[in-house]
Write a structure and sequence with these properties.
Elements: H1 8-19, H2 21-41, H3 47-73, E1 81-82, E2 85-86, E3 88-90, E4 96-99, H4 121-129, E5 134-143, E6 148-159, E7 162-169
Antiparallel strand pairs: 1-2, 3-4, 3-7, 5-6, 6-7
């Protein structure tokens, strides 16, 4: 029985099976998807992107207030998440009020949290905001993508009784 293409379909299948072209095509597709996935997983935000995300978050907070802003900041796939960048917010006691990567941290007191070298970077951020409303903090932190301790730099800005933060891996 011939198909509507005059047997072409059956002949093509036979050629593909004999030559292994199907396996080659599938292998190529698999490699392509794996490479694309690896590239996506390794995407890192830049300093300028982190600064811009923080600026947008600060503006949004000022325009919309605490409740609406925190609801947006807490979304792990929202407009305040880009590649490996996200927004989190602490109060002057180091309590997490909002977190765009891990909602389980909300309510946790992180003032004594130390980086890989023992630096209490959250406390340092809070102390810095007592003098300057905004700044940058460098510390060493485990990158969840690479599973290695890496240099991280964090931009922060204090608005009233909250400190809005966004960091990136260098």
């Amino acid at each position: 029985m011939q198909d509507s293409l005059g047997g072409w379909k059956m002949q093509t299948r036979a050629v593909f099976k004999k030559t292994g072209i199907v396996k080659i095509v599938w292998a190529g597709l698999l490699i392509g998807f794996l490479c694309a996935g690896f590239a996506y997983a390794q995407e890192k935000g830049t300093a300028s992107e982190a600064k811009a995300l923080l600026s947008r978050a600060v503006s949004y907070y000022k325009e919309n207030g605490r409740g609406k802003a925190f609801a947006q900041f807490n979304k792990t796939t929202g407009k305040f998440v880009h590649s490996d960048l996200y927004i989190y917010v602490i109060d002057p006691d180091g309590d997490v009020l909002s977190h765009g990567a891990d909602r389980k941290l909300i309510g946790e007191r992180l003032i004594d949290l130390e980086d890989a070298t023992g630096k209490k970077f959250i406390k340092a951020i809070i102390d810095d905001t007592k003098v300057n409303n905004k700044g940058t903090m460098d510390y060493k932190w485990m990158n969840p993508q690479t599973k290695k301790i890496e240099q991280k730099s964090t931009f922060f800005e204090r608005i009233g009784d909250v400190i809005i933060i966004c960091g990136y891996y260098k």
